[in-house]
What we know:
By secondary structure, the chain is of the alpha+beta class.
Amino acid sequence: MAKSSVLLDWCNVRLGSDHNWWVDEVSDPVRWDVDGLSIVDPRQMAHLIEHVEPLRDYGFDQEMMEAAFIPFRIEKEVPKKLVRLKRVKDSFFESEEKLFGLPDILDEENGPYADLLDHLTRCRVKMLNDLFAFESKLTVDELEDELRENQNADYAEGKALHAHNELIAILDFMPAGYEMEEGEETPRKGKAKAEDDIDDADLPQLDESEEEQLKNDQTLAWEEDKEKEEDPVPKPAASKETEVEEDWSEDEEEAEEEEEDDEDSEDDEGGGGKKAAKKSPPSPPRRPRGKR
């Protein structure tokens, strides 16, 4: 597929506030409108190439991606904080040089870049349907509708659509309720389970020694036991008056016991007769003791 214009030999680009590169001026202003014209930088191009690798098993065509972008390399800096890019003929997948990629959007409906968007969408849908057990097959229309809704929301906020963001939205698309495992290049097969859906079959099996060790591990106590230990119900403390009364009663009992012992000893000495002398009165009770 031929490139769009032989007159497009160079372009000046600027770094936007969103950290994306945008075209400010081109050598072919007749056919190229630079208003909102984005360009993919070398870092973003490497990111895209990495993301399309898993799609090779689902029909990804590398030549379609090569045709969708016009390659440029940095030539020099120009005034007004712009960078002049020079057009080259290198391959994005094979060249070791850091290349910018200008999307070929002269024909927005049927051009090479539009073909790439459709191709990646179909490959992504095919991969997701293969990796996930959906209740009903995911369709291209469903993916496109959701992406279009997000793009319209960004447009309403005044955000311009950058080519890199548009492509990554397709390559990273995941239906609601599904997720990518961390560190994986492809989605995890099957729907992610919620905590309440995890059954015993998903838990690791332990031998007898490990189970016994877990039973004796105090750090694994139930929450209820922990709450009881942390917040025990305090027993009502005895008042000072109650303590004094208890001590006074004990003193009285001791005095009575002493009196009974004295009477028994006197009866034994007198042969059970009348007491020889009047028993001296008991000593006054001792002073109440404090809390023991």
